[in-house]
Amino acid sequence: MKRLVKPSKNLTHPIFEEIRGIAEGSETPLNEVVALNARYEFVWFTASSYGCTSLLALPEATINKHVLLGQNWDFKPPFLEKSLLLQIERKDGPTVLTHVEAGCVGRTGFNSKGIGLCVNALVSSNDKFEPKVTFHVLCRGILDSESLGEAIGKTINSERSLSYNFLIASSEGVGIDIELLLGKHFNHLQPENGFLFHTNHFLKPGNYNDEFIKVIPDTLLRYQRVKKLVNHKKE
Fold first, then answer.
1. Which of 136, 146, 154, 160 could lock 37 by a disulfide, CB 3.0 to 4.6 Å apart?
2. Is the CB of residue 188 less than 8 Å from the CB of residue 174?
3. Are strands 96-101 and 164-170 parallel, antiparallel or unpaired?
4. 77 confidence band (pLDDT: 50, 70, 90)
């Protein structure tokens, strides 16, 4: 666990200090709280058969002209009692509301600057577990952002060891989907007709094999389903 501490600390000092505070407040060794915030990386080893679907609708596609951003989270039942809506208020940054497991600093959510984040697990043949910035820490970095540009910059400039998908949007009426891969490699997708959605497989081809389809092939069907529903709403 000690190998994970330095990358987490390097992303942004306030987040690491919060991890330290969680450890001290719960009288838990720091390395164990760091490990909690590497939960995504550890679950990756188990090839989980649970998935999720994310959807963004921009003002031009909604009746009330608001931005709608959301997702489901189909995961293991025991995590239900360990999950919470965490509101984080700071003097030096936006207020954050995030859905997360106890001990973790962030995952899905939005902030008082109008930045929202949805996530989807991905697995490529190039993934390998290394001491890089962990998924939960990067999620929190996005939710701490003052603007969509800052959130995108943090996303694509972080060095990662595994793949995952970020659907990021702003209340100003813009959004982007970023498929993140090993290191600093990424793909991006833009909204079409005011909609953007993602499940648990890569939508952009690349120099890798999509391994998650083998575990949760229904990701292909869920993508077709949400696409059909979106097209129906446009008619």
1. 136
2. no
3. unpaired
4. confident
Instruction: Look up residue 30 and give its amino acid.
Output: L
Structure-token pair, residue 200: 């648990």
- Please write the tens of the pLDDT for every residue from 50-69: 689 999 999 999 999 999 99
